[in-house]
């Protein structure tokens, strides 16, 4: 999830205050975990303890509170119109690219790759700084500050790499450049009844970001993360060599090293990605669930992996939304033909129309009317969260979900995240870090209940998003990997070759802020990160991190990544992944140390 927000609305506060939320104090034992050399599992509280109220000190409002509260004015009159123009311009560019022959697109691609090689060879290692793309910091989709671009660095322009090079229906592979986004590729493939195996929900998410970082969708319980669906990578290395890496050629180590590396091993200039056959509609079942958080987690696990283990019952898509501490809706989808969808008695819901209710609110109606089934056009289902940016749209525009706004102005949604970032200063940016949460927790399926209780007690953020994904056993130990020996436990959802994980998406303003109470966002994220480390879980790097280098490499495994850094000459040329992820503006001394590779040795404590 990648989005940016504004102030809590009056309606949002009322909605939260109506919920019976409570909080207990939680004292993390993780502060000593770095010295013990062992991961210690946090013991979640009993559900009864979650009902113990704790009165927090009231928070005093300052000027930036009012700037954020009324930021919707800027969004309405500046950001939305500008976003619409940018989207239209991008659409025209995509159409122009599609009109070119594959041969011409490939020739332009080859020419652009040579420009990258030439630019890399112009770098003077003694004075030019470490290499990164020329993309402006505010353009990136994500909450991270991209502070590494605020000091000396050497830029390489990759802005031309935004074309679909080939859709090969025989090999079932799409060859695309890194700036191709999800909306662009689904627009090209869905009319052919083809799709990427994993289509991240937001239109603006790019192939390069999803491969170098992480990407997920409701089909990931079958196919894994976005990077798991890649067939081949074309990469420009530090010395200007152009290589094609696959899982079984001489560059297989690079193939497995690129995911989660944040572009620090080389420049990705194209990727070949797996396609799957699809049908025109998604048959979606909305199932309401009520009970304690652990029961919601179990209902979600049953949706992901039926207890009887029958593979025929595994749906094509799974998604869960937890609306408060006792209510959630689990959604399971199966591809359906046009003929089935249009049978008498079946309901078709085109959720992509601009005036339609926002998807998360539509799903929430199952809590009142009970389980129901409907058919959604497949491409509209893929991008169901785009228009309202999950539920962040409610904070960006407090009245954006009202029918009058949707009908008159819904076609302008969503605001472009890059423009939201470009129109904020440091004060507002820091305000979001302190008073708002955008984090994803990738946790083993059997620990989802513990994760939900942790988020409730530490952040009290709702709704929460649940999306399952397989974490495969690979020939090498990559930055993220399953729990050692998981296959011997035969837990729900696991197989001999993959452990089932879940993305717990935490995106919203904590209830403490709505109630006018104090909330320390930095300390809350620190405790979240320690919980992840202790529970063999992961934090995607698009989010703001408070990890120091030691803890970063306790969460992730460095061995294979460092092997690739050394073997392919990235050290001293490309930034390290921790350097890119680290919060805060880098000093010139840090730049010099990174150039000389004088960094704290990467390691992970023994479990």
List the helices and strands and how they pair.
Layout: H1 10-18, H2 33-36, H3 63-69, H4 72-99, H5 102-121, E1 130-133, E2 153-156, E3 164-168, E4 173-176, H6 182-189, E5 194-196, H7 207-212, H8 220-223, E6 230-236, E7 242-245, H9 252-257, E8 267-277, E9 281-290, H10 293-304, E10 317-324, E11 327-336, H11 338-341, H12 359-364, H13 366-369, E12 372-377, H14 378-382, H15 393-396, H16 403-409, H17 417-422, H18 426-435, E13 437-444, H19 448-458, E14 464-472, E15 498-508, H20 511-514, H21 521-534, H22 549-555, H23 559-567, H24 577-581, H25 588-595
Parallel strand pairs: 1-2
Antiparallel strand pairs: 3-4, 4-8, 5-8, 6-7, 6-8, 9-11, 9-12, 10-11, 10-14, 13-15, 14-15
Helix pairs in contact: 10-19
Walk me through what this model shows.
This protein is an alpha+beta fold. It has a domain at 108-277: Uridine Diphospho-n-acetylenolpyruvylglucosamine Reductase, domain 3, CATH 3.30.465.10. 34% of the residues lie in helices and 17% in strands. The chain is built from 25 helices and 15 strands. The chain has helices at residues 10-18, 33-36, 63-69, 72-99, 102-121, 182-189, 207-212, 220-223, 252-257, 293-304, 338-341, 359-364, 366-369, 378-382, 393-396, 403-409, 417-422, 426-435, 448-458, 511-514, 521-534, 549-555, 559-567, 577-581, 588-595; strands at 130-133, 153-156, 164-168, 173-176, 194-196, 230-236, 242-245, 267-277, 281-290, 317-324, 327-336, 372-377, 437-444, 464-472, 498-508. The strands form three sheets. Strands 12-9-11-10-14-15-13 form a seven-stranded antiparallel beta sheet. Strand 6 (230-236) and strand 7 form a beta hairpin. The model is unreliable at 2-42 and 598-607 (pLDDT under 50).
């Amino acid at each position: 999830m990648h989005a940016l927000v504004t102030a809590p609305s009056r309606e949002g506060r009322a909605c939260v205050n109506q919920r019976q939320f409570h909080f207990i104090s939680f004292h993390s034992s993780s502060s000593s975990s770095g010295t013990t050399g062992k991961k210690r599992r946090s013991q979640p509280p009993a559900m009864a303890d979650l009902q113990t109220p704790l009165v927090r000190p009231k928070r005093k409002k300052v000027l930036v509170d009012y700037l954020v509260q009324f930021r919707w004015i800027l969004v309405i009159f500046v950001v939305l119109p500008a976003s619409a123009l940018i989207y239209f311009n991008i659409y025209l560019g995509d159409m122009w690219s599609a009109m070119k022959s594959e041969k011409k697109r490939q020739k332009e691609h080859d020419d652009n790759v040579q420009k990258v090689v030439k630019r890399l060879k112009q770098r003077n290692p003694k004075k030019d700084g470490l290499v990164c793309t020329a993309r402006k910091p505010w353009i990136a989709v994500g909450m991270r500050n991209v502070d590494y671009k605020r000091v000396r660095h050497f830029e390489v322009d990759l802005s031309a790499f935004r074309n679909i090079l080939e859709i090969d229906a025989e090999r079932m592979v799409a060859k695309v450049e890194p700036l191709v986004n999800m909306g662009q590729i689904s627009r090209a493939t869905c009319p052919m009844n083809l799709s990427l195996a994993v289509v991240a929900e937001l239109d603006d998410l790019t192939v390069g970001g999803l491969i170098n970082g992480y990407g997920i969708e409701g089909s990931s319980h079958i196919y894994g993360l976005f990077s798991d669906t890649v067939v081949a990578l074309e990469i420009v290395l530090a010395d200007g060599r152009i290589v094609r890496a696959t899982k079984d050629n001489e560059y297989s180590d690079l193939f497995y090293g690129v995911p989660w590396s944040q572009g620090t091993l080389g420049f990705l200039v194209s990727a070949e990605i797996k396609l799957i056959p699809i049908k025109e509609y998604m048959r979606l079942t909305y199932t309401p669930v009520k009970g304690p958080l652990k029961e919601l987690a179990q209902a979600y696990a049953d949706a992901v992996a039926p207890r009887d283990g029958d593979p025929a019952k595994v749906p094509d898509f799974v998604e869960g939304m937890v609306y408060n501490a006792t209510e959630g809706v689990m959604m399971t989808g199966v591809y359906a033909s046009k003929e089935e969808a249009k049978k008498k008695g079946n309901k078709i819901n085109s959720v992509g129309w601009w005036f339609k209710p926002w998807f998360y609110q539509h799903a929430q109606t199952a809590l009142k009317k009970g389980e129901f089934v409907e058919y959604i056009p497949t491409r509209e289902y893929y991008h169901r969260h785009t228009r309202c940016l999950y539920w962040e749209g409610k904070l960006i525009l407090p009245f954006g979900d009202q029918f009058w706004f949707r009908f008159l102005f819904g076609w302008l949604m969503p605001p472009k995240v890059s423009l939201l970032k470009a129109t904020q200063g440091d004060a507002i940016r820091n305000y979001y870090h302190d008073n708002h949460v955008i984090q994803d927790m990738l946790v083993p399926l059997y620990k989802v209940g513990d994760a939900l209780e942790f988020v409730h007690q530490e952040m009290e953020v709702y709704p929460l998003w649940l999306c399952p994904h397989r974490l495969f056993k690979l020939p090498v130990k990559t930055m993220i990997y399953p729990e050692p020996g998981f296959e011997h436990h035969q837990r729900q959802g696991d197989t001999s070759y993959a452990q089932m994980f879940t993305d717990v998406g935490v995106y919203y303003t904590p209830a403490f802020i709505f109630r006018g109470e104090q909330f320390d966002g930095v300390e809350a994220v620190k405790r979240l990160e320690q919980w992840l480390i202790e529970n063999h879980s992961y934090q995607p790097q698009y989010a703001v991190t408070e990890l120091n280098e030691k803890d970063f490499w306790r969460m992730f495994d460095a061995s294979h990544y460092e092997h690739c850094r050394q073997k392919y000459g990235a050290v001293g040329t490309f930034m390290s992944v921790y350097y890119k992820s680290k919060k805060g503006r880098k000093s010139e001394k840090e730049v010099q140390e990174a150039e000389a590779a004088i960094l704290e040795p990467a390691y992970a404590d023994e479990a």
